[in-house]
């Protein structure tokens, strides 16, 4: 770089720093500014020799992260300083955590240390469990040290996602999958809804670029029409709101690309068929005392003009979400017969919705009871420390609890408890206390006895019936949905199993002695194989419960003495069962090179995954399994995000190169208005499409509406698309989709 370029870059760095101070959500004191300035100077010096993949000076990254922390999340000067310093210790040998503590104090050092540990996790090598899932578990442990560690990490991830264009595609896909898998749900749970939305959209941009760009283009095309619609909606209610003397703003908010895509997938509809692509937000000025009263006043005004959907009222003012989110959500029938979601929030509620943790603490009173975020962190800490799940299962369970919608239920004394949607009385019991859960014998919901698998609804009053003699049983795992309940049940069952297994071992020793067999490692292994079990614990447990009885043990003793005879028999049987065709199978199997793997485009053996049933032409990737070789998945497979995030080191690039000679099964679902001769029209279209064979066809008609399933054999995606396009042209057919 020339001196002029360096000067120009330095001026840009100085400008970015000044902007950081200007955009801060908090009012910065002189001491705050000194702390931030000192952190900035240390970061500039530490990163002076570094550049990002894009070529720009590395210092722009910590400044950008600090800006997100200051403006979008609204954290304090300590957090802004920690964000500026978040990569200093990791990237520069001249600075240690001790140096940071001496320069900036214990709190900043603790946060920087947490961030440094998270960054260094990915460098650990441990192939027994998924690296990524284990890293997430360790990362979540830092939450208890200081929640700001995770919040700054989310800001760091957001800026990395915003500036990923210069990275290799495989690296982009890995980081994006990881973001969708854990960082977006975490942002959601901490109440950073705006950041969660941006992370999801950016994640989709790199994991499914075609889908992302297609929806983005359609949203741009319909923006003008949407703006006009929102204006028409607002004009109707503005006069009434003004008449009440309210100070308010009305904003139209388009739904995120990711949420539109999720809706399209869930409902099986096209972009044009997604009706609620935007929401209207009314933000009003109010003191704390009148907030609730004014929210319901605005609700009354909106519903005077537009008919509400009674099943879509969400009152998070009376019962805020456990993230601290408060608002009133109404869905009303707007102009032109369209459903519109209206969100009613005070300015305070809006700040909490946008800033999450930071705004929540700004408005928190000193005499408030323990905060819901604190409760959640304590629960999380307990789950992390007591979890008997492996890392991947733990993260899957944790993620379910992060994203699940909430219901509010009452205890017999009228206290309100928040649980994930789909929770059962068992989840409720374990949320109160482990001992209550352990002793659960039954449950009453609204005064009536219900099964433990009963799904709770908001407003239910739940009474747990306990007994000293009650014990958890394996069926409980089918009834419990929360990570806390499942984790506790598993550990309680393990304790029970161990106790029974210890008794079973002694019983087995006595019974084998009568059969003149010594209980040792050899005989235990023989019995494990004989009874088709997995471990010695399984064997002892089954003896303890009586599932393996005297008769079965005598059979084992007899088979032991006839081991040689059995061995010879099995050899003879194996020979007799050989199919002559099997010997020539390698010669018969076609050897067309359909898929190539990796950068070298190698030809390897593979299997097609049953979960997504890829066919040639689909965008795919290879996943190296432990026992089953390479499994090929579609890039938009339901399991893709989890696999790419958790097992990035087992993902292998894959590409179709020739599909002209192999045939693949695909299933088509049709729906529409039934009419005479429809089945005949459909079969004609299929038979007229060359290279397409129909395996099976089934139709169902219900009051003039038909649904049909067709299983076809095709050679590639192009042929399938052509067939589907032709089916759509048939009169009466409304929708044609591929499973």
Automatic annotation (TrEMBL):
GO BP: any one term:
guanosine tetraphosphate metabolic process
Which Gene3D superfamilies does the protein's record reference? Answer: 3.10.20.30, 3.30.70.260, Beta Polymerase, domain 2, Hypothetical protein af1432
Q: What does the UniProt keyword field contain?
A: Kinase, Transferase
> CDD domains under this entry?
HDc, NT_Rel-Spo_like, TGS_RSH
The family database entries (SMART domains) matched by this protein are listed as: HDc, RelA_SpoT
- Which PROSITE patterns did the record assign? TGS (PS51880)
Q: Pfam family example for this protein?
A: RelA_AH_RIS
Q: Which residues form a coiled coil?
A: none
Signal sequence span per UniProt?
none
**Got a GO cellular component term for this one?**
plasma membrane
Instruction: Give every TGS domain span.
Output: 405-466
What GO terms are given for molecular function?
A: kinase activity
Q: What does this protein do?
A: In eubacteria ppGpp (guanosine 3'-diphosphate 5'-diphosphate) is a mediator of the stringent response that coordinates a variety of cellular activities in response to changes in nutritional abundance.
Give the family from UniProt. Belongs to the relA/spoT family.
Q: What is this protein called?
A: GTP pyrophosphokinase
Q: What is the lineage of its organism?
A: Bacteria, Pseudomonadati, Bacteroidota, Flavobacteriia, Flavobacteriales
């Amino acid at each position: 770089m020339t001196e002029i370029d360096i000067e120009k870059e330095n001026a840009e760095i100085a400008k970015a720093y000044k902007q950081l101070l200007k955009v801060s959500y908090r009012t910065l004191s002189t001491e705050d500014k000194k702390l931030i300035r000192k952190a900035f100077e240390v970061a500039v010096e530490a990163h002076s020799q570094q550049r990002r993949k894009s070529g720009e000076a590395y210092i722009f990254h910590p400044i950008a992260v600090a800006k997100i922390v200051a403006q979008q999340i609204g954290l304090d000067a300590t957090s802004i300083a920690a964000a500026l310093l978040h990569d200093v210790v990791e990237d520069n040998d001249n600075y240690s955590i001790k140096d940071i503590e001496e320069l900036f104090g214990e709190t900043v050092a603790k946060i920087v240390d947490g961030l440094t540990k998270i960054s260094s996790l990915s460098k650990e090598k441990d192939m027994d469990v998924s690296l990524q899932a284990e890293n997430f578990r360790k990362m979540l442990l830092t939450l208890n040290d200081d929640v700001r560690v995770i919040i700054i990490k989310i800001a760091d991830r957001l800026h990395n996602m915003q500036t990923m264009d210069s990275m290799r595609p495989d690296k982009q896909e890995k980081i994006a999958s990881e973001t969708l898998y854990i960082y977006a749900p975490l942002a959601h749970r901490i109440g950073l809804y705006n950041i969660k939305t941006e992370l999801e959209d950016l994640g989709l941009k790199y994991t499914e670029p075609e889908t992302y760009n297609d929806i983005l283009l359609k949203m741009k095309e319909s923006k003008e029409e949407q703006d006009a619609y929102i204006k028409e909606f607002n004009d109707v209610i503005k006069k009434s709101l003004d008449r009440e003397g309210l100070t308010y703003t009305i904003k139209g908010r388009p739904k995120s690309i990711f949420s539109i895509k999720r809706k399209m997938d869930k409902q099986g509809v096209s972009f044009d068929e997604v009706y609620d692509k935007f929401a209207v937000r009314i933000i009003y000025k109010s003191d704390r005392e009148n907030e609730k009263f004014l929210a319901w006043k605005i609700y009354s005004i909106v519903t005077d003009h537009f008919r509400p959907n009674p099943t879509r009222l969400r009152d998070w003012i009376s019962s805020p979400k456990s993230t601290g989110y408060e608002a009133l959500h109404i869905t009303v029938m707007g102009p032109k017969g369209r459903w519109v979601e209206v969100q009613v929030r005070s300015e305070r509620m809006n700040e909490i919705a946008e800033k999450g943790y930071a705004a929540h603490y700004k408005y928190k009173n000193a005499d408030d009871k323990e905060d819901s975020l604190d409760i959640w962190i304590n629960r999380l800490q307990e789950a992390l420390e007591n979890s008997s799940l492996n890392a991947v299962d733990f993260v899957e369970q944790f993620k379910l609890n992060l994203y699940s919608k909430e219901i509010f239920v009452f205890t017999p004394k009228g206290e309100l408890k928040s649980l994930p949607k789909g929770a059962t009385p068992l989840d409720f019991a374990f949320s109160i206390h482990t001992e209550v859960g352990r002793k659960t014998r039954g449950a009453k919901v609204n005064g009536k006895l219900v099964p433990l698998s009963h799904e709770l609804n908001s407003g239910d009053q739940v009474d747990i019936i306990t007994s000293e003699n009650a014990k958890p049983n394996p069926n409980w795992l089918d009834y419990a949905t929360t990570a806390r309940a499942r984790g506790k049940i598993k550990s309680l069952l393990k304790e029970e199993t161990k106790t029974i297994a210890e008794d079973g071992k002694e019983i087995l020793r006595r019974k084998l002695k009568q059969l003149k067999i010594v209980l040792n490692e050899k005989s235990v292994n023989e019995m494990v194989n004989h009874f088709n079990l997995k471990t010695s614990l399984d064997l002892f447990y089954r003896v303890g419960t009586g599932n393996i009885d005297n008769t079965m043990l005598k059979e084992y003793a007899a088979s032991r003495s006839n081991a040689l005879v059995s061995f010879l028999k099995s050899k003879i049987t194996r020979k007799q069962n050989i199919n002559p065709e099997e010997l020539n199978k390698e010669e018969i199997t076609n050897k067309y090179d359909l898929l190539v793997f990796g950068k070298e485009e190698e030809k390897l053996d593979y299997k097609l995954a049953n979960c997504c049933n890829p066919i040639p032409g689909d965008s795919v990737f290879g996943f190296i399994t432990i026992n089953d070789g390479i499994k090929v998945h579609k890039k938009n497979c339901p399991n893709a995000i989890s696999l790419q995030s958790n097992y990035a080191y087992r993902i292998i690039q894959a590409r179709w190169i020739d599909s002209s000679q192999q045939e693949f099964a695909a299933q088509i679902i049709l729906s529409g208005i039934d009419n005479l001769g429809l089945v005949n029209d459909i079969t004609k279209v299929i038979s007229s499409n060359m290279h397409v064979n129909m395996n099976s066809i089934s139709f169902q008609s219900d009051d003039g509406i038909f649904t049909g399933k067709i299983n076809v054999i095709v050679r590639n995606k192009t042929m399938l698309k052509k067939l589907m396009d032709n089916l759509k042209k048939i009169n009466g057919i409304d929708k044609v989709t591929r499973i």
